[in-house]
Design a protein that fits this description.
The chain has about 150 residues and is mostly helical. It has seven helices and two strands, in the order αααααββαα. A two-stranded antiparallel sheet has the order 1-2.
Length: about 150
């Protein structure tokens, strides 16, 4: 990092450093996902779908924090690539759920390996304990408690 006076001020700002890390991380992850025709937002949907037996688009929006219209577009993309599909909800035939296809499961495994390489590149300056600590701290600030009054 530069020692220029104007940079020292920015580097003292944790919010700015998190922003820069987010840009760098997003750029590296997107570059690794492009080979599959995906972006990081697609990957997030695939990861979520891999952990559930199906989800309504509204659930995807709520859980991932994406605008509902963005979810529709992301699911359209994934369906076009045969990585996910919309099926009738077994509990309510009037609704549809989004599920991961076999091709989506395979691609997710491949992209997880790519993601691990990106993470290793990003975290190369840290030892194993520092990586665990960073992960724990990021979880704490990325997922604030449901009820701030109870302290978490």
């Amino acid at each position: 990092m530069s020692d220029a006076p104007w940079m020292r001020g920015l580097h003292a700002d944790t919010g700015y450093l998190l922003y820069r890390l987010g840009l760098r991380s997003g750029s590296l992850f997107n570059a690794s996902l492009e080979q599959h025709g995906l972006r990081l937002r697609h990957y997030a949907v695939l990861r979520y779908l891999s952990a559930v037996e199906g989800a309504r688009q509204r659930e995807l929006s709520d859980r991932l924090g994406y605008d509902p219209s963005a979810i529709v577009s992301l699911v359209d993309d994934l369906q076009r690539l045969d990585l996910a599909e919309r099926r009738p909800d077994p509990n309510d035939r009037r609704n549809r759920i989004v599920v991961l296809t076999k091709a989506g499961q395979r691609l997710l495994q491949e992209s997880e390996q790519d993601g691990a390489r990106v993470t290793d590149e990003l975290l190369a300056p840290l030892d194993a304990q520092e990586r665990r600590t960073l992960h724990r701290l990021l979880l704490r600030i990325a997922e604030p408690p449901e009820n701030p009054a109870d302290g978490g």
